[in-house]
Amino acid sequence: MMSTCTTALRAYLILGLMICAPTLASADLTSMSFTGTLADANDVALATFTLSDPSSVFLQTWSYGGGMNAAGTAIPSGGFAMELALYSPSPDESLLLWLSNGLDLGCPPGNDTGAYCGDLAGNVFLSAGTYTLAIFAQGNQAPLSLPNSFGTSGQFWNFDSSADATPAYAVDVSVLQIPVPEPSSAVLLASAAALFLRKWRRMP
């Protein structure tokens, strides 16, 4: 009788693990690459991305020093020293993060082209929602909320050359999503184990 109960208990524990397995937390890394050209130094490119779960988001620019972006595209150097501003989901669309040149934050993985690193990098933890990333030239100002103006003082600066930089930009948004496991599965497994242990101990 004890052997029969033990076999049944093991069977139900295995079944419980099979039920719980799909809901265990797993990390999922995805990347999005945004490239383009600003019409002029006061133009602003807006890119959006959506998070289905709370996530750690990493931003990296490539167009100043060049490099290989997340899409596997070789980005040439010579782009302008850009700035990035991240805005919360609507209806607020308020400023969450402003990355500005001057702190050498993006090298590595960006490439130094001389004495100055003109690429940016930053990391922020965000909740689920749709966010807006503004890409603009240094010299302009990120407003506290959208759709307010970014100003008219932008310049296509390249600090390692006397020539003007190209208006091309390249930005990667890498997202590490960590879904929260459903507690109901763990409770189900624990309850099944407790029930069969209790019945087993009552057997004569």
What is the fold's blueprint, element by element?
Blueprint: H1 2-20, E1 28-37, E2 44-51, E3 55-61, E4 67-68, E5 74-75, E6 82-87, E7 95-99, E8 121-126, E9 129-137, E10 168-177, H2 183-202
Antiparallel strand pairs: 1-10, 2-9, 3-8, 3-10, 4-5, 6-7, 6-9
Helix pairs in contact: 1-2
Compact summary:
The chain has two helices and ten strands; from the N terminus they run αββββββββββα. It has 204 residues and is of the alpha+beta class.
Describe this structure in words.
This protein has helices spanning 2-20, 183-202; strands spanning 28-37, 44-51, 55-61, 67-68, 74-75, 82-87, 95-99, 121-126, 129-137, 168-177. With 204 residues, the protein is of the alpha+beta class. Strands 1-10-3-8 form a 4-stranded antiparallel beta sheet, with no helix packed on it. A 4-stranded antiparallel beta sheet has the order 2-9-6-7, with no helix packed on it. Strands 4-5 form a two-stranded antiparallel ribbon. Helix 1 runs antiparallel to helix 2 (183-202). The chain starts with a helix and ends with a helix. Mean pLDDT is 78; it is low at 1-25.
Task: Describe the largest sheet.
Answer: 4 strands, antiparallel
Main β-sheet, spatial strand arrangement? 1-10-3-8
Rg, nearest Å: 26 Å
Overall mean confidence score, pLDDT: 78
Label this structure with key terms.
alpha+beta, 2 helices, globular
